[in-house]
């Protein structure tokens, strides 16, 4: 697709990052063109294909949704882990049981958790068709992503566009900055290393500095830098664990790469938080660390997401719905799966 429209290799490689973002795939992998289109199909404030920052950080988006829900009378219980879905004698979902023993009864249950957690951990297996369970078990959840959050005491100054004397953010500081993307072959090489169980020696790096647009995210003169990096396998070669040594070794590789583009970056770092695929799974419940709850390959999209005959948000359990990234149309901060699931659930609710 990119070859049809562009000639510049650095431009093609930079755009190709959206074809492999969050995917254990190379730009040469068949079907990766869909992932590219998936990331530019939407719009922001009337601008097609545009992305933006959330004022106050990404958590502010969840807080805004929570406020809107609370205004409609919704009760929100934070830090209350769900133990399992409650089923009635007729096999219908009747609410959820919390780990502290509390039972929350309801006529409908919508799960924003991954299909794996929803159906393999929270739902009684004997109530699910065996072929459905097998399908959920076989979903490709491989993830190449390691997220690194960084605090710095000055803006990165890139050789290609040095900082202004007053230290104020320049236009490129307010955008996504793609590093190690001068050629598509670099992305393929990084993927190949991870496919053999080794973190990329020259990782694909998407660097954002949200505090350049939202100064409230960091103290005066300081900034927060978000690094979305690939490729890191969830399972390292030889069964080696993602321990502190492995984590820091990979982060050092990433920082060395950034240093080559922006000398002085490493000296400006005052703190970093490294989240490998196992960390993303443990903290956020993402299967294998996959930000989309499952690969966005063509065999796991549309009518096959999360499983054939169950792409319409309803599940084998009546009154239990899937509304997260594991449902159609897949991942992305857009809310499409949730909106569609809510409309289906509301339609069923009116029949009850």
From TrEMBL:
A cellular component annotation (GO) from this entry: mitochondrial matrix
Descriptive protein name: Pyridine nucleotide-disulfide oxidoreductase domain-containing protein 2
Domain Amine oxidase: 32-159
Known partners and oligomeric status: Interacts with COX5B; this interaction may contribute to localize PYROXD2 to the inner face of the inner mitochondrial membrane.
Matching SUPFAM superfamilies: FAD/NAD(P)-binding domain
Gene: PYROXD2
Predominant cellular place of this UniProt entry's protein: mitochondrion
Family that this chain belongs to: Belongs to the carotenoid/retinoid oxidoreductase family.
Molecular function terms, GO-annotated: oxidoreductase activity
Keyword Signal appears in the UniProt entry: no
Keywords: FAD, Flavoprotein
Top-level taxon of origin: Eukaryota
InterPro entries registered for this protein in UniProt: Amino_oxidase, FAD/NAD-bd_sf
Function (record text): Probable oxidoreductase that may play a role as regulator of mitochondrial function.
Subcellular localization, as worded in the UniProt entry: Mitochondrion matrix
